[in-house]
């Protein structure tokens, strides 16, 4: 059957039109997919964890209510359905209930507060609002309280949710505003690195500021003496076990000895020396210059290298306590760097906390010695010759410490040395150093008879 030319033209036109329509649909689909991908790439990920988060807070008892004001970045409130406008800005007309849910989900459910050891349970959200990044109302408790009680941001405010701040007022029922309170922050989940600034305002007492990093555990805001004792003893114990450089120095002290008793003199010298500089640093007798911590870390590495080389060349064990005392002064400053941040939790028990931290360090050292001595006695008595084993072990320690010395010296070398200004501040610092030197010499003179008494027992030589 022959199709008329008019019908044939119509069929071709239909076929071409269908093909064109198909191509147009495919093109639109591809364009839609590309646009969706662009939007997804441009949109912040809901599950992205912020790298650094700072939380500001106030804690103040008012009668039988404990007021807890908190400011946290809104971007840390993940997995929350935050209402947004088509433009991507916050829909401030609908965000109210979401803020209360986010406050409880991310803060209220994880911060634990205690009154005289009694847990207070979950708080009530009395107020929640969004603030601009430029808002300075959390500079004081009074300003923060006024801001939370005041009108919220105007509905036409253009604010992206990741730029906003969440301000919350939590309230806990308490028995007395004179109680002792403790807090378990529990906010580490807000970001990779979380810093909580907590200001405590108790009746008739000055404001106290706590700067809590990471997981600090239970923080007694006004600790009793035995609470400070337990906390700082634990801190000192675990600090020495975590400090690989201090452990290697202790290891070098132990290698030439075979029994615990001859070691008492050397360990006592080390203990007395680092106690002096630890306490002196806590009472602001140490330099505060930026170059001082890198200098101490470099000297600690140098002390390990020296002690290891002395073991290799043959140590004069009868006089080793003198060298150990000198290096102990350096290691004490190293201990103080770890203690300095924790002293904010000492309350009014500064001296007790210092002695407790030192006690924890000594307990940790004793534990290490009780483990090392039998192992070394077996290793150098049955596995390898005593002198050869001493050289091999000391060489391994010296190799590790030498690398540390190079790395730390490179950091120290970045600081430019310049002559200080000979003003009153310099003279005050010089006087503090002179007092510290006199204290160290006096302590060494008092310890010397103990060292001489130990010589009769005669530490064994390698």
Question: What does this protein structure show overall?
Answer:
This protein is of the alpha+beta class. It is built from 11 helices and 10 strands. The chain has helices spanning 5-42, 96-108, 141-149, 225-242, 244-254, 260-282, 292-313, 320-340, 350-383, 386-412, 424-455, and strands at residues 52-62, 65-73, 112-115, 118-119, 124-131, 165-173, 181-184, 193-200, 208-213, 219-220. The chain has a 6-stranded mixed sheet with strand order 5-6-2-1-8-9, with helices on both faces. Strands 4-3-7-10 form a 4-stranded antiparallel sheet, with no helix packed on it. Strand 3 and strand 4 form a beta hairpin. Helix 4 (225-242) packs parallel to helix 9 and helix 5 packs parallel to helix 7. Residues 1-24, 31-46 and 453-462 have low confidence and may be disordered.
**Strand portion:** 5-15%
Distance between the termini: 116 Å
Enumerate the spans where pLDDT stays under 50 for 5 or more consecutive residues. 1-24, 31-46, 453-462
Secondary structural class: alpha+beta
List the secondary-structure elements in sequence, H or E: HEEHEEEHEEEEEHHHHHHHH
What is the radius of gyration? 33 Å
Largest sheet: 6 strands, mixed
Overall body shape: elongated
Give, in spatial order, the strands making up the sheet with the most strands.
Answer: 5-6-2-1-8-9
The percent range for helix content is 40-55%
**Count of helical segments?**
11
